[in-house]
Amino acid sequence: MAILFYDSSIMSPMILALLLLASLGCLFGLARRRQQCRPLTPWRLPVIGNFHQLTSLPHRGLHNLSQIYGRMMIVYFGSAPYFVISSADLAREVTKTHDYHFSNRVKSTASRLLFAGSDDLVFSPNSHFRRQAKKLCVNELLSTKRVQSFYYIIEEEVAELVAKIRFSCQDGHSDIDLSSLFIGVANNIVCRAVLGQKCTDGGNGDGTMGELVKEATELLTAFSFGDFFPFLAWLDSLVGFNKKGIQISQALHEFLDRVIDEHEIQPPACRTEDGENNRKDFVQIITELQKNDMSGLQFTRDNIKAILLDMFLAGTDTSAASMEWTMAELAKHPRIMKKVQDEVQSVVGEQPKITEHHINRMKYLHCVVKESLRLHAPFILGRQTFTDLTLGGFKIPANSSALINSWAIHRDPLIWDRPLEFLPERFMDRSSDYKGQDHNYIPFGQGRRSCPGAHFSVSEIEYALANLLFWFNWELPDGMAAEELDMSETAAQVSHKKLPLRLVPVPKAV
């Protein structure tokens, strides 16, 4: 003890100052290393993590947090940490530089229930089977040539949509629910392309398959205790979540089994008027590939049903929502609606029917749809890495989950001029497409996990909108001013208008 007192008593002020500086340097270095190793995390509560900071619209809540904690931050959804990315450059690192390493999907309780453990394209982890199955689907089901062979379905269903709207005009200047009509036409187009039959002959696509897909979509976006609080997973059974998922899954699989059986017993007629054998539906194509062993893959019946279910879940809600938002934006911006209507009229002229050739010449319509998808893109599903890596200078451990907030990227003022405004003209001289080549514009994602059905979806959206703008003028109901149109949105994987879009169609003397 005496020695210690002695030693401390004879220390010079310079030595004390050096020790103090060394201590501060160590602390600073440690803090810096920690900061370099992990992104910032918003202050969180025990158990619930950052849920209380996300608001009712998670994509907006995450954007607000990123303004404080950076373009890559760790957000805790309950006990599940996610690396949330709100920067185009960092998103490109995930989907380009580390595309292979981030090629696993964050699987949810709902997806496990719906697919009953079968490998599909959307939710299955990266594997040889998934890579080959996606290649097969892109080449045989979703290629440009194949989409063109389905174009007659889009034309026929949109013609029925126009006829329904025309019929409603007989009652005078009454408004119609476009949101429901868009869901109906999207469901029927996908049903006919996939199964060779309509979802329903009624008005709103609420037949057997249409209703089941709606329930499945709602289940995928519903809250599950097991996804965010693994120790409370038993509550999913208690509140009926698991039972509901199993019921929907069984009903979907029974329906798809019947359709596949019917195709095997008696394939539908698929010849066109000129004799070409190119009107096969998805079920017919994929079962023939399986039967003839042309794919090189061992497709089981469950694999086929899982892939067909992917087509419905990815192809109906997104297309309907995009039509809804685009018409809403046009109703809110009469100048833009007039401009795109003039283009449609100029291109079609006095022709009695709009064709795919006409659509290809409607440059401003393409810009309108792109701008709508910029502002109202679906929230991109989470990815998961299977190995350690470095992202944006931070160390990311294996099995980490990442979310790319495309909503935030599409509103980044460093990328977009007047980002909150609906300005289709911004795409007139911009070479953005839907393939993810422009990493600032990713409405359908990028890389291995991008949506392979983008071309099909956009073809459907553009053709429907062109017809609505060609055959009708559109007014807001009850003398509502354009600035009064409610543009509130729902909180879901695919965001719809909170209130259905109701507009007044006025037939044009074309």
The overall pLDDT average reads: 85
Structural class: alpha+beta
How would a textbook summarize the main sheet? 5 strands, mixed
- CATH level 1 class label: Mainly Alpha
Helix content: 40-55%
What radius of gyration results from the CA coordinates? 27 Å
> In the CATH classification, which architecture applies?
Orthogonal Bundle
Strand content: 5-15%
CATH fold-level name: Cytochrome p450
Q: Strands of the largest sheet, in order across it?
A: 1-2-8-5-3
Whole-Å distance between the termini?
A: 104 Å
Model regions low in confidence, pLDDT < 50 over at least 5 residues? 1-35, 201-206, 271-276
How would you describe the shape?
A: globular
The CATH superfamily is identified as: Cytochrome P450
GO molecular function: heme binding; iron ion binding; monooxygenase activity; oxidoreductase activity, acting on paired donors, with incorporation or reduction of molecular oxygen
Protein name: Cytochrome P450
Cofactor: heme
InterPro entries: Cyt_P450, Cyt_P450_CS, Cyt_P450_E_grp-I, Cyt_P450_sf
Summary tags:
5-stranded mixed sheet, monooxygenase activity, disordered N terminus, alpha+beta, 510 residues, Cytochrome p450
Structural write-up:
With 510 residues, this protein is an alpha+beta fold. The chain has 21 helices and ten strands. The chain has helices at residues 2-10, 13-37, 58-69, 88-97, 109-115, 128-140, 144-149, 151-168, 178-195, 208-221, 225-228, 234-238, 241-265, 282-291, 301-315, 317-332, 334-348, 356-360, 363-375, 406-409, 454-471; strands at 72-77, 80-85, 104-105, 176-177, 383-384, 389-391, 394-396, 401-404, 472-475, 502-507. The strands form three sheets. It has a five-stranded mixed beta sheet. The protein has a three-stranded antiparallel beta sheet with strand order 4-10-9. The protein has a two-stranded antiparallel ribbon with strand order 6-7. The radius of gyration is 27 Å and the shape is globular. Residues 1-35, 201-206 and 271-276 have low confidence and may be disordered. This is Cytochrome P450. Heme binds at residue 451.
